Amino acid sequence: MGQVAWKGLFLSLFDYKTEKYVIAKSKKVGILYRVVQLSILAYLVGWVFIVKKGYQDTDTSLQSSVITKLKGVAFTNTSELGERLWDVADYVIPPQGENVFFVMTNLIVTPNQRQATCPESDRIPDALCYKDGDCMAGEAVVAGNGVKTGRCLKDRDNIRGTCEILAWCPVEKRSKPKYSPISAAVVVYDVQAKRETRWISLFPTCRMNVLATNNESYLKSCRYSTEHPYCPIFLLGSIVQWAGSDFQEMASEGGVIGIQIEWNCDLDKAASECNPHYSFSRLDNKFAEKPISSGYNFRFAKYYRDAEGIDYRTLIKAYGIRFDVMVNGKAGKFNIIPTIINIGSGLALMGAGAFFCDLVLLYLIKKSNFYRGKKYEEVKSSSRKSLSSPTLNGNQSPDQVGGL
Amino acid sequence: MGQVAWKGLFLSLFDYKTEKYVIAKSKKVGILYRVVQLSILAYLVGWVFIVKKGYQDTDTSLQSSVITKLKGVAFTNTSELGERLWDVADYVIPPQGENVFFVMTNLIVTPNQRQATCPESDRIPDALCYKDGDCMAGEAVVAGNGVKTGRCLKDRDNIRGTCEILAWCPVEKRSKPKYSPISAAVVVYDVQAKRETRWISLFPTCRMNVLATNNESYLKSCRYSTEHPYCPIFLLGSIVQWAGSDFQEMASEGGVIGIQIEWNCDLDKAASECNPHYSFSRLDNKFAEKPISSGYNFRFAKYYRDAEGIDYRTLIKAYGIRFDVMVNGKAGKFNIIPTIINIGSGLALMGAGAFFCDLVLLYLIKKSNFYRGKKYEEVKSSSRKSLSSPTLNGNQSPDQVGGL
Amino acid sequence: MGQVAWKGLFLSLFDYKTEKYVIAKSKKVGILYRVVQLSILAYLVGWVFIVKKGYQDTDTSLQSSVITKLKGVAFTNTSELGERLWDVADYVIPPQGENVFFVMTNLIVTPNQRQATCPESDRIPDALCYKDGDCMAGEAVVAGNGVKTGRCLKDRDNIRGTCEILAWCPVEKRSKPKYSPISAAVVVYDVQAKRETRWISLFPTCRMNVLATNNESYLKSCRYSTEHPYCPIFLLGSIVQWAGSDFQEMASEGGVIGIQIEWNCDLDKAASECNPHYSFSRLDNKFAEKPISSGYNFRFAKYYRDAEGIDYRTLIKAYGIRFDVMVNGKAGKFNIIPTIINIGSGLALMGAGAFFCDLVLLYLIKKSNFYRGKKYEEVKSSSRKSLSSPTLNGNQSPDQVGGL
Fold this sequence. Notes:
homotrimer; 404 residues; alpha+beta; Helix Hairpins; atp-gated p2x4 ion channel fold; ten-stranded mixed beta sheet; four-stranded antiparallel beta sheet; 11 helices; 28% helix; elongated
């Protein structure tokens, strides 16, 4: 018996086995099934493949190196500094033009600071005192500029004074900067954001955001705008405006602006169609409502040494606009695996659809009972008693069963 | 015949065809199949959908812009510098508060260096000499500070000396820095890591790591801790401690600490549930065992010009802690395509399960032989001789076959 | 009737239902189907699983922190500066050794600039003038160094002059720098690119590009090369050469070079097999053909203050090589979900293959007509008139149909 089974198994290897189907002449279910099939097909072709490009393998890991360069000068006339001209070496920090750069548009200058003792600013609560005992020697002033010496300095006929501190003296005046003169001229700055982006994994040939042109004068004279989407030269003022901010307010308070470059490349098309899309957004606006640091500023110092070899410095609290160039990309390329997976899942859905229609056919329509009998053929060996009810008997005549 | 075939094909378009099933009253296999089905269902629903959120499309490309700000002062009293107070403009490099910032906690100062000739440090093997011939003029000292002039300088009654070099003189003393006084005060620094992260592709609305509160005093006074997970203000000392390092050792030797911010967002839930998770780790600890640069340090110089217009500089070898704020994120959003794919693959598995149970039914159980006959209905046209053995004959009565 | 149906439904729960198959003894189709099956299997096992590692979940989000350090000195002898020795504090900008660093190899020095009035460079078209009227007072010179004062300065017996400007005077000579002496020595620099990369999501244990060795002398003396792929020390000259550029040209004009580190890790294998692959490429070469900034350079200034407390500065236009260390990685780990998805899609394809073979069997081969009759069993209830043609009648004997 077993041997015959193996023989049968082997023979059957090169037979073609195909499911036996029952044709149910129920137009209702038939049309229902066609509808299911068509909708699945529409989803697969229309949505998955045409809209979502499901046949592509996408890569979002983008390596980019950003080169930025600023041009332009600004003229200011302030009480502390007098007439002064600012060029890139003065207002661009850091100078080397990476993807994050800062343009100083306003500043508080505290010149000639020396290591000495002086009264702490009276704007700092922790420095207020009535007697020397309030200033514990050696204790740092919380959120202050130095370390207390232990003395409480008062102007005559004042009860309240401020602690004396060891610090860079005189301390910075905590006055909010008035409207900045630099920003008046800042609109003439250009950000020559010359970007170089490369795909590592999918995109060997390097792509640029600079229009591939040999027209020198165009690249020298153009300014980025909706009309010139591939011109790499931006006006600072326009960027701030595109980010939806007011330039004057940003220039005096400082802020952070993100320049987002999106590459959305379909590598199945020509590389020339893979172009950048820019978007500008203010990154620090959320903070505006928050106590901690509305705007953007930081302190740095220029160090000098006088004839006696004593160090002194000019402390600069720089307000300005920080620009973060953020390159983001997605590249899609045809790949057999996601294609197969999407097709496969679609086919599997068809099976689910058939199962659903079966339920309708076998349990919901009028003659479901009859079809159930046809679909399911109950078999039992003579060795056991039949459990099947006549209606379930299917298309078996007794002699067939007995025939075994 | 062909015409009839096409007619049949057309008619059948709106018939519903359903597989004909054989009901094998074998409870063994039946239960086995149910078990298989249930386990697949459990895997699909429990693991894929509930645990792994297989219905979501996830995006890991996160654009982030980090703003950091430090506060605090430190007081030192060293032989080279005397009493000195350090504020942010002194110890934060670079000053502009990006995602990578360095806090100087220890330093070797070499003041008043001028371009001149002087003996190379005797700690450098390549500079040791016995006669002038050992110092080839114009040759740079390997891992040294200058270019050899060709002379070998010896203290009197010494056989061995060091080459004279053209360099910034005097050269830096290669002495390991003693315990740093700055770090004594460094624990009062705050890193006000005010971060701004944005999803480009999936997450238009910007998310912050700052608790959305209007409580000013909270954000001014809070410190990040397990109790205050959304407070953006960190104590330097705590960060180092959380990174599992000893602050004193790091402060004197320097090191790199990574502040990792993880966003793991389920965009199907409310945005307010999308919160950052911080983790702190030391990034340079591997190097501790390695010869090349345990710790972290770099050299920079402050340039001065004396009355005669001659340049001189103060060389500073800065030891300190570099902090790398690394933002990493994952956002998941419901998407029909992965959902279908996962369901589809599950259904396909069911088919595999059925195939497996068929094998059991047809070849492994006692009456497999009988079921095989039932499942496979052998058909042959009268035109060819039957190959089928009686046992494989299935449920066909001769007249049926002959009837064609 | 319905009740019987439900009874049948319940009973059938623990029956095993298996599709009834028709064995078509058509070796043609049988072999065709086997071929289809085998090719799908080959694709699934060979391509998807073995080649493409379809059983793995891959993660491309890599967090990396890069530490770089340069060593070496250079000696120059120029007219402006005389004999001068350059060390890391002089030519590395910024000094703190992050993933982007710049090595100054050439420079234009403009010493002793003061805020004053002087003629604009005559290389700037906008500054050329014939009479004072050509220089509108207060107007900034386009692409120039200052703001016009309104006067037109001419050498005697010249018709054409240049506008007087308020600026840092004297202005920089726009002369292209001659071949740079620094680069002559630059080949002795080492870039000690000591990198620390970490996987956040998939790779908890940190990985390094430094060979895990305790051999001090090796790591001190080695240089990266194809023979020493895990030595973290690079010669600047070699990097430029590997990037396919000429060092002398780059050193004098400047440029940007990308050092790409690729981690392609199979986390199912030992971590020790997860090693970095380096590639070097020039990132700014595209610009070479473009008008805007061939090469790479930027301006910065050193600020001094004289005895009278007047600021003056030395402007430096620095040409040099910027290095961008870009870490990119992919980690794959076995994951049940993609495995199931790929298997599932393969199985679904099998179904498609069967469907295709059915078409052949039922409509393309000689006896298709006969097989169609066998595969499709037409059933109709006595209540409606049979539409079926005899050939489509299938294997039903009248008494069966009448029997219901």
